[in-house]
Design a protein that fits this description.
- There is one protein chain.
- About 45% of the residues lie in helices and about 15% in strands.
- It is α/β, with parallel strands linked by helices.
- The chain has three domains: about 15-180, Spore Coat Polysaccharide Biosynthesis Protein SpsA, Chain A (Alpha-Beta Complex); about 200-255, no CATH class; about 315-380.
- The strands form two sheets. Strands 1, 2, 3, 4, 5, 6, 7, 10 and 11 form a nine-stranded mixed sheet that branches.
- Helix 5 (about 185-195) packs parallel to helix 7 and helix 6 (about 210-220) runs antiparallel to helix 7.
- It is elongated and about 115 Å long.
- It starts with 12 loop residues before the first strand and ends with a helix.
């Protein structure tokens, strides 16, 4: 039975988003939260236009230091919210129109303390209901005090109330998630998430890493539909298994006590020590001068030539003219040589062909050289 509790008229809704460098999606994300009575943005020191773009869509913006995952900032963001009901999204998520309508009606007479919405992934730019990610749910709406946040990656949202409503996927209510537009993006995020010590991990600690990888592929294929070879659904299953395999490899590395950086340092130190004994390596008398040509923190990239570039630009026409004069001089010398060869040919016509052969070879070489120099001259003149 649907037993709803009507909210008092003065009960309002807060919404928060944690963002970092998602200026492409953030405006759409914040616009979908326009039904909330306040929208709070916590930005993790973005270097793109995220904060500027959010200024007209958020009521308050907090800029905090960067951290690798969203879980480490959600508790801070929730504490900035003033109202009883809280809706939150990641910066690559947007509510469907059906979700906006649903929350407007539902929170006027809520049936639960927390709500999990269908999570509509768009991986490689596509959502496919045959893929293993559909339908998954994410908790994104709760009454204050019924949810706790921790830093655990992919496991940092904890429902404290037994009164959780899971919205059916066939309703159209959903969160559109635009997080992995490419394989590169998937691997980048997977590497970042699996590097966090506090993370949700697959429940499989087998020492056989190859068998583990095969089992994870089979696991995600089994959750897919129509995952025939080469299909999108099979590709997504493989990406999911790749994430799990990266996670397991890092756990193995940690358990085995492998410190690759320390090993590299030792190897480099041994090489450096050996280099000191090699007589063929040059010893520099003084450190090299350092010329920093980067723009300063507030200095725009220079488009006008500096003194050195201006000197080079001023010297360029003179150098160009000098090159042309050298080419013309060589050309004149070749013409003189060609005339001499022609006179020699005329004089030697009475001799047999065998006597003329060396002269003919010389004439051919001269002709080739003339063609090369003429071509070079034309290119030079064409560049003026």
């Amino acid at each position: 039975m649907d037993q709803r509790r009507t909210m008092p008229e003065n009960t309002k809704i807060s919404a928060f988003v944690v963002s970092y460098n998602r200026a492409d999606v953030l405006p759409t994300c914040l616009a979908s939260l326009g039904f909330a009575d306040e929208v709070v943005l916590v930005d993790k020191s973005s270097t793109d236009d995220s904060v500027a773009l959010a200024a007209d869509l958020a009521d308050r913006i907090y800029v905090v230091p960067w951290s690798p995952t969203v879980e480490e900032t959600r508790l801070f963001a929730a504490a900035r919210c003033a109202h009883e009901w809280i809706v939150f999204l990641d910066d690559d998520e947007c509510l469907s129109p059906e979700a906006i309508e649903f929350l407007g009606r539902e929170l006027a007479a809520p049936r639960a303390d927390a709500y999990a919405l269908p999570h509509r992934h768009y991986v490689l730019g596509t959502h496919d209901p045959d893929a293993c990610y559909w339908p998954e749910h994410q908790l994104r709406v709760f009454r204050r005090g019924t949810v706790a946040f921790s830093d655990t990656v992919h496991g940092g949202t904890h429902v404290l109330s037994p009164n959780l409503y899971v919205v059916p996927p066939e309703t159209g209510v959903a969160i559109h998630n635009f997080s992995h537009e490419s394989v590169f993006r998937w691997i980048e995020k997977s590497n970042r998430y699996t590097s966090r010590p506090d993370r949700l991990r697959p429940d499989d600690d087998t020492p056989d890493l190859v068998a583990f990888a095969h089992r994870r592929i089979d696991h995600w294929i089994a959750r897919s539909r129509n995952a025939h070879p080469g299909s999108y659904a099979a590709t997504i299953a493989l990406l999911r298994a790749l994430y799990d395999t990266m996670d397991r490899l890092k756990a193995w590395e940690e358990t085995a006590g492998i410190d690759g950086e320390a090993r590299f340092r030792q190897a480099r130190a041994a090489l450096s020590e050996t280099y000191r004994t090699l007589p063929r390596l040059r010893r520099r008398a003084a450190p090299a001068a350092v010329v920093d040509v980067r723009p300063g923190p507030s200095e725009p990239a220079r488009t006008e030539p500096g003194p050195a570039e201006a000197h080079d630009a001023a010297a360029a026409p003179a150098a160009h003219a000098h090159d042309l004069a050298e080419i013309k001089r060589a050309y004149d010398e070749l013409l003189v040589a060609a005339r001499r060869q022609a006179a020699e040919l005329t004089r030697l016509r009475r001799f047999e062909a065998s006597h003329l052969h060396p002269v003919l070879l010389g004439a051919v070489k001269v002709e080739r050289e003339i063609r090369r120099v003429v071509g070079q001259l034309r290119r030079r003149l064409g560049g003026t």
